[in-house]
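Translate structure to sequence.
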């Protein structure tokens, strides 16, 4: 048996543990708290999100969600934290933090902040609430268990990440507007532009006809 087979066997055993743990917590008070938190977060977001900029805001939220999934996967794989209550029997509790609270919150921050100064200020406030309020609450209620990890690690990592994601999205939007502007001023290539019809009072050699 080589190392790949050992990893596969370990993952089968781990899947059994995850499934057993999920069944033990299914429909408990803590499980319903997680489900209610997810539902309430989406309801609040939908109420306040700017529907006129929905695609742009969702794209920013998608950037945050992808980064959170990668961060959570790395941390859980390195045994830095474990979710003891999960909505679904997955290895990581993606829905609560990665796909709900963090991206939805920062989408509203992005929506309301037009300047970098205002965005950075509210990003700090939002991340303080998440890293130093919500995470300790999850730990206190044994929904999340943290090993060899400090809350301020999450604070600084996420602050850098959301700043970089906003810069990336604004750059992409600027490039899009640049090409849209160029397209509106030259919608067709020169080879496809219609030829001009000669004027009736012009002859073949370019002289004006005599009356």
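Result:
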């Amino acid at each position: 048996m080589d190392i790949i087979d050992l990893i596969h066997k370990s993952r089968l055993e781990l899947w059994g543990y995850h499934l057993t743990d999920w069944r033990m917590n299914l429909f408990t008070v803590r499980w319903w708290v997680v489900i209610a938190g997810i539902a309430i977060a989406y309801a609040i977001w939908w109420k306040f999100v700017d529907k006129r900029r929905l695609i742009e805001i969702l794209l920013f939220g998608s950037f945050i969600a992808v980064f959170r999934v990668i961060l959570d996967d790395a941390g859980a794989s390195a045994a830095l934290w474990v979710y003891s209550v999960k909505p679904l029997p997955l290895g990581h509790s993606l829905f609560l933090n990665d796909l709900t609270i963090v991206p939805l919150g920062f989408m509203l921050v992005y929506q309301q902040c037009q300047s970098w100064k205002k965005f950075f200020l509210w990003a700090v406030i939002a991340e303080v609430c998440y890293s130093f309020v919500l995470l300790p609450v999850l730990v206190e209620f044994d929904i999340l268990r943290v090993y060899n990890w400090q809350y301020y690690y999450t604070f600084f990592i996420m602050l850098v990440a959301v700043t970089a994601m906003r810069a990336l999205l604004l750059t992409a939007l600027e490039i899009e507007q640049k090409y849209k502007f160029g397209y509106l001023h030259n919608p067709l290539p020169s080879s496809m532009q219609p030829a001009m019809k000669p004027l009736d009072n012009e002859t073949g050699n370019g002289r004006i006809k005599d009356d």
